[in-house]
Amino acid sequence: MKKSSIFGLIVIAIAIAVIISVYSSTSSYGNFNDAKQTTSELKVVGRLNKQKELHYDAVKDANYFSFYMRDTVGNECKVVFTGTKPEDFERSEQIVLTGKMIGNEFHASNILMKCPSKYTQDKLETKEYKAKQASI
Amino acid sequence: MDTVFKGEHLLPGQIGQFFLVLAFGAALLSFISYYFSTTDDAGKPGGTWQKLGRIGFYINSLSILGIGACLFYIIYNHFFEYHYVWAYTSKTLPVRYIISAFWNGQEGGFLLWIFWQAVLGIVLIWKAGTWERPVMTVVALSQVTLATMVLGINVLGVHLGSSPFLLLRDFMSASEAPIFKSPDYMSFIKDGQGMVPSLQNYWMIIHPPTLFLGFAAMVVPFAYAVAGLWQKRYKDWVAPSIPYALFACMILGTGVVMGSFWAYESLNFGGFWAWDPVENASIFPWITMVAAVHVLIVYKNTGHSYFTATFLMLISFVLVWYSSFLNRSGILGDTSVHSFTDLGMFWQLVTGILIFFVMSVWLLISRWKELPITKKDEETYSREFWMFVGAVFLGLSCFHLLVVTSVPVWNAMFGFNIAPPAEKARMIHYNVIQSSFVFVITILTAFTQFLKYKKTDVTKFFITTAVYLVFSILITALVVYATGLYKLNFVFVLVMCGSIYSVIANGKVLADAFKGKFKLAGSAVAHIGFGLLMVGALISAGTSTVISINNTGESYSAEFAKDENPRENILVYRNEPQKMGDYTVTYLGDSLNLPDHFYKVNYRRVDATGKVAEDFTLYPKVQVNKGSLASSPDTRHYLFHDLYTHITMTNSASTSEEKGVAGEEEAPKDDTKDYDPAVPHEVAVGDTIRFREGYMVLKQLNNGVKLQNIAASEVLVSVGAELEIVTHGKTYHTAPVYMLKKNGGVFDFPTKVEEAGLKLQFSKIIPDKKKVEISVYQQPESAKKYIVMRAIKFPYINFFWAGTIIMVIGFFLSILRRNKEVKAV
């Protein structure tokens, strides 16, 4: 076999490996019920329940923020985020949480929210909040 | 529309719109003329078509200047009847940001791109010689496609592009905002939305133009590759296109790292790279273009790998369009932090990609049989073969980024419902896989230096390679041990080794270059820069530590306590020193320069002998914009590490200028709610009053204190109680006043010491005991000013920036060399 054919095969093998590894490390979207079934992290889309309390008290604990979110199918769940309350959180239109269920609380490692731009309803701004610092 | 609107300035917009249409028309004329000058006038010097093509392109360039002038005019004069002006600027916007308001919107981004492409087109008309006609056909086509993106007019029922001269009243539909039906609506629009505070930064002035010059420059090598296929001049196009390809790599690389530096310096992303889809998209074309340059050189020297070289050239430009599509179509939606608005141009952007993609594929297929593809195998011990392998690995690295970043695209195309890797997993996923590719690439950039072009003495090669490799492994072991990198995934140690190997091997080449083989200096310098960049990225991202770890918070539930999330935010009260790692941090106060609210945070480190080793103050800031907060970090730079601090929460951000000044008399207002109930103390001169956070001494009583607003003639007695307050190691002075008026009225004038969270009232004089009563109001614990902050130490990050600069210099040297070769031909 020619050297270039061998090399070509190696390249194809690597490409396939890449696709498999990408597929295996993707997570999935779900709701709070799905989150209860699994132990791995997943993404839950929903809306903030503005009637219930948003809890953040820097004096008691600067790294504890909790709120209630209703997912797309209507389940409500308490969400806990290790970190500070994201700016403008109350104004969020839609929230995408990444995290997992621990007991009856959903522990979010990442909050991504969409806020309506203040004056134009048809524009959305996206903001992301991470519980952890970027590291390898 | 029948309504006549008052107070509008429609003329500049109409002129601007005229120039937009003219730019489009002229580009189209230029494209068609250059096309026919290539096909019909082939071989004829001069000719009408070529003349027309040039004229079209010049008119196009002039119209772009006209568009820019009109846009500048309406922004500078605050004509808020234009949506662009209203949405991105305000009357209070400092003049220096008027320039950056230009490219704040997406329309402005397209305009920048068109502008740079016009500049490059003019350079090509001047320099390309026999290549002018086919190359300019492609450039003009790209110019036409871009011009449609900003046209903002309806053509055959399809709305094409989004114009920066769109009127606000046309942007807002009249049903949603009935105010725009009223003829004098302009009298209600006093000011624009203003620029987002985080964009009010000098990086916003230089980062977008650099980035867009990089994107625009990609068109030139693409046009050469297309022209080479089209004109069947398979060999000739390579030499002249290499300098342009290098230029595109240099500028785009600079632009991307500028963005990374901006994010690190003044945005709160907490790092310089986060594998965000928008960041990834910007380096796709860079990676493939770097690969293309290497394969082009292979082809130029050996005649091998023609297809790969052409393919990489072509795909780079298609990827520029693809990344533009990802960023602007809104498809990234909830996967990216960067907020880009959807202008409703989804299909137009898709068409943009398809034009160049289909053109590339069609050319390759139709010329397939004629392509100079060699059947002969390449020499294993030749530099070219391994350069080719390296380029393929660069391509694979880009392929991986492309597959993951495009997950939302796969979802849209195939109806999947997969989410990109979640937060933690995402960083690990990208870092590990990309590092594997980088490891291979760095190793290749190292040992390939010891190979000769075409054929090498094998034994000598193995000896040199091994000697340098052992040497690099030793250095790597030292570095890995010293920085603690060994605690991470082993692949990072491998990358470190590869990078150091690359720096050393290319260092040798550079040393030889100074001895006379100066031709090789460019690539050596660029490789050294890349190696250093990787070293810096690895150490600083891999071993950065959050030093604001805070384990003092109350646990709200058993589950929460079990969770091993590091608690990275620390609460610091004003003037209360707080221990944080090796440092003692103190929040000293605020200073306002609207819209910026700076927090003075002092860092002190005392070494083992009790001497102050470090003492500095950082000014992280919070910007207040229409009631919402945005924070920017401040960083202490050392040669070998950075200390990064940013405010995540505060209760003291204010939008107004009001600020408590110690000892200042204020208009009496009911602020008792801000304080705990008063504690009265009966004291004589020299007595001490204790309070929660310190003590105060009544130094003396001053009779006859004068007060500003009260005439001396009305006053019977006025006494000031001079108090010295000591709290948290600081001393303050204040003097509340007690006053009796001649008409029998009794007044007291309390004073506030904001820094100490105190209000002091001279409430009574008790003559029989020779004492006075001082009431002490303390701010409750919760009303005390505080900041919640996060601090991260980034070691050796300067390698990252220095490596980038060195790499850019390397690119520049290579451009000089390759440019000389073009002239020599």
Explained architecture:
The complex is a heterodimer of chains A (136) and B (825). With 136 residues, chain A is of the alpha+beta class. Chain A contains two helices and eight strands; from the N terminus they run αβαβββββββ. A five-stranded mixed β-barrel of chain A has the order 2-4-5-7-6. In chain A, strand 7 (105-116) and strand 8 (124-130) form a beta hairpin. The longest helix of chain A has 23 residues, at 3-25. Chain B is of the alpha+beta class and 825 residues long. Chain B has 21 helices and 24 strands. In chain B, the strands form five sheets. In chain B, strands 6, 7, 8, 9, 10 and 11 form a six-stranded antiparallel sheet that branches. The two termini of chain B are 63 Å apart. The relative contact order of chain B is 0.07. Classes of the chains: A alpha+beta (136), B alpha+beta (825). At the A-B interface, helix 1, strand 1, strand 2, strand 6 and strand 7 of A face helix 14, strand 3, helix 16, helix 19 and helix 20 of B. Strand 1 of chain A pairs antiparallel with strand 3 of chain B.
